[in-house]
Amino acid sequence: MKYDFDKQINRRGTYSLKWDGGELIKQIGLTERYDEDSIPLFTADMDLPVPQPVIDALHRTVDHQIFGYTIIPPEYYEAIQKWFAEKYDWQIAVEEIVYAPGTVHALNMAIKAFSEKGDGVIIQRPVYPPFTNAVERHERVVQNNALVQNDDGDYVIDFADFEAKAKDPNTTMFILCNPHNPTGRIFSNEDLRRMSDICAENGVTIVADEIHGDLIRTGQTFTPIVKTVENDDHIVTLTAINKTFNLAGLHCTNVIISNQKMRDLFTAEIGMSLPSPFTVSALIAAYNEGQEWLDQLKVYLDENLAFVKQFLDERMPKVKTYIPEGTYVMWMDFSGYGISADEVHDRIYNEANVILEDGKMFGEEGLDFQRICVPSPRPLIKEAMERIENAFADLN
Ligand SMILES: Cc1ncc(COP(=O)(O)O)c(C=O)c1O
């Protein structure tokens, strides 16, 4: 079937964090202004309908009328196995799959399972803020191997620094984000292998958050880190249907751990988590029948990203950005205006009434940046961009 992603679906009144969560996001300091005229493009969920087979499967589950404790049936594991085998040539054994109610939760449990208080944990800022929060909440120490922007504007890894941090006897863990949020970088197989080798040599566990791996640009390829190495004994991979199929509200993450000792440590930490019946039906339908939708979605995302890039190039050329290789977030550098980050924020959030995410949330490297999520109907993205343009009209 043909999906109409341009159609705007009113999400107000649906308990949506983006559209109904104004008070909460004001409380956490994302914005001072939020009202019924706000355009929220801050969080990475899509204002787009999910695949029809998923909707049908959820309807069937509703029709059962009873929503009791739920098992994870063989079809659940088979759907995961098929998806990763077909797309990534990654053969996953059933026992390697551990269900977790969400990726951030899994990440927190992984930190507890694989490191001790006071240990160093490498992350690569600017990076998805819960990485820093999770490390600090559990009283581990952030070892920031900051990504560096080269002369072409591409974010690259500072390997000398990475190696020095991995060699520090205090460092026991590395949280990889690939594709990387917010820079949109897909690390090369060579980079992945090199990071893995350094970690293996130094007894550093890798927790690889790959939940944006299915959402890459046409023509790009994504390789799970475990497929780039000979030995994946030190690697734990976080996969999820939440980003790929816009099902974040169903909290469905699958953690892949081939090393049995590590798996035991992780399951001991996470305890017995059971999914909801909605989660089980949605995953089976999404992985077995969601590819047609995903193919169309990716084209739409490519076009949205190209739209924003062209808009900025033509109408706000002082803002530097690029098309990300993966993810649907854009990382926009506002330093060209020569005004403070606070003033940039004020113009976008208070004047234009568009809610993005300040780059500084991702680490000090992001101070002059804003992150915009673009998986929304294009008319909405267009309106947001026009509002932002107007708020900077005197400086363009
Ligand atoms: C890299 C990354 N990891 C994890 C998450 C959140 O995942 P979950 O909703 O499964 O906790 C996000 C959401 O934006 C993300 O970008």
What are the SSEs and their pairings?
Blueprint: H1 17-20, H2 22-27, E1 39-40, H3 52-63, H4 74-88, E2 97-100, H5 103-114, E3 120-123, H6 130-137, E4 141-144, E5 148-149, E6 155-156, H7 159-167, E7 171-177, H8 189-201, E8 205-209, E9 235-240, E10 253-257, H9 260-270, H10 277-289, H11 291-315, E11 329-333, H12 341-351, E12 354-355, E13 357-358, E14 369-373, H13 378-391
Parallel strand pairs: 1-12, 3-4, 3-7, 7-8, 8-9
Antiparallel strand pairs: 2-10, 5-6, 9-10, 11-14, 13-14
Bound molecules: pyridoxal-5'-phosphate.
Pyridoxal-5'-phosphate is lined by residues 44, 102-104, 128, 177, 181, 209, 211, 240, 242, 248, 253.
Enzyme class: lyase
Protein name: cysteine-S-conjugate beta-lyase
Keywords: Lyase, Pyridoxal phosphate
Q: Would you give an account of this structure?
A:
By secondary structure, the protein is of the alpha/beta class. It folds into two domains: 140 residues, Aspartate Aminotransferase, domain 1, CATH 3.90.1150.10; 224 residues, Aspartate Aminotransferase, domain 2. It is built from 13 helices and 14 strands. Strand 3, helix 6 and strand 4 form a beta-alpha-beta unit. Helix 3 packs antiparallel against helix 10, helix 4 packs parallel to helix 10 and helix 5 runs parallel beside helix 6. It is globular, with a radius of gyration of 21 Å. Pyridoxal-5'-phosphate (PLP) binds next to helix 5. Belongs to the class-II pyridoxal-phosphate-dependent aminotransferase family. MalY/PatB cystathionine beta-lyase subfamily. GO terms for molecular function: cysteine-S-conjugate beta-lyase activity; pyridoxal phosphate binding.
